[in-house]
Amino acid sequence: MEQSFIALIERAIKENWDLDALTDYKGATLQYKDVARKIEKLHIIFEESGVQKGDRIAICGRNSAQWGAAFLATLTYGAVVVPVLHEFKAENIHYIVNHSDAKLLLVGDMVWPELDEKEMPSLEGIIMLNDYTLLVSRTEKLTYAREHLNEMFGKKYPKNFRVEHIKYEYDSPEELAMINYTSGTTSLSKGVMIPYRALWSNVQFAYEVLSLNKGDKLVSMLPMAHMYGLAFEFIYEFCVGCHIYYLTRVPSPKIIFDAFAEVKPNIIVAVPLIIEKIIKKNVLPRLQTPAMQILLKVPIINDKIKATVRENMIQAFGGNFYEVIVGGAAFNQDVENFLKMINFPYTVGYGMTECAPIICYEDWKKFVPGSCGKAAPRMEVKIDSPDPHNIVGEILCKGMNVMLGYYKNEDATREVLDSDGWLHTGDLGIIDEEGNVFIKGRSKNMLLGPSGQNIYPEEIEEKLNNLPFVTESIVIQKDDKLVGLVFPDFEEAATQGYTSEEDIQRIMEENRVTLNTQIPSYCQVSRIKIFKEEFEKTPKKSIKRFLYKDAAD
After folding, report:
1. DSSP code, position 331
2. Does domain 27-170 have CATH number 3.40.50.980?
3. Is the peptide bond before 357 cis (omega within 30 degrees of 0)?
């Protein structure tokens, strides 16, 4: 079989020409032919302004149909796409654009007012995503291309733009397709170099395990600038000929429910938090009444109640889906037990940006609760442990999905990719006889934001530790909010006349407010809890985080 990712995109456009492709929820719809037209117009701008194959093009904006078209245009042109999360602070966006050597930046209208073009001196131009307005042009060629775009398009296709005009240059497997940055803090942000084979293999994986058909529908909730949402809420569905609805606003439970009820999606891709919120708010309270508890103990009634609850849950998600795929972080054990009890069709996958993203998966009918599935097709997984079934060790993987390395960072690449091609994930786990992987902890300490954003607590702590009278800190997650645990410098505070608990509390609150101005909205710290003694350390003097993960109370 031909291993070309671009061939899949080309085929999708040709075979679904008149079908609906991308809709901004409550807004406009692009059909596959409209996406093709947008791709073609961007190709003209790229070509006329001198973009070469392999040049970087950055995209930063909220999820939208226009974002999807710009992403496909970049790849089908042969340029390297650099998706940037729109929630990053301006300085992080500037850093990523500069570090990736981007030539052009396609930007959303919400992001643009925050940015400063002077901070991105090597860009040749900045283009508005929604209508290709030229916001900044530093070359005459680019200005000319935009001003004469419709004229050039008309000359190129005098008798209408038709399906037979679609012909893209195919990729080769090891070629660099995209650079995806793992976080939004400059000091720790690494650009993951994803080759075409990894994109192709992730789409192929989805074809093998998910059974979507032409015309099926999906509600996209996860950020497209992240691999999880990009691969399984956009690329695969586009290749199949599905109709994708973008929640262009921040997805609150109400907006999500309204969209599910209206769209009735055929598959749901989510992070644990969304599922947990729905269950905790809408389902569990009804089951925890004393009368309900008694009924749940009576076998026949118990089965009826479970069946009713399951049906209610399924209807809440639109009533039309094959399964709910959960990924991105560990599932709350109580919630998972509950879903298993009512036989809800869910499964938990495991992946990381470095694998674009899939590493493990299992269909819901065979899925073992508590696990994250088995090694995905074309991937191998092993545990670095003397007894992988019983003793926790680092999860290692290798295969077609693995990245080429980190852009301009050979040291970081060497730390995670060994000479035999095994990627050291930094996650800890065990594996059973059947090959099911059970994650037991993240040695990377990553937390997950409300819409699937990666939060690295060390990055927030680094900033918090620089604020007045903070000796050391840990950031933990409690009920989907971030809490800062701080051991203050009491002696230093006292020398400046701050001796009471109220004084320290007030200063820490001021610190919290200052901190939140320095970090993205999904990393905001909701409160600070003060510790009287310093945190326990390992011999290497790093804080024993696991002792404090429940310390927010």
Report:
1. P
2. yes
3. yes
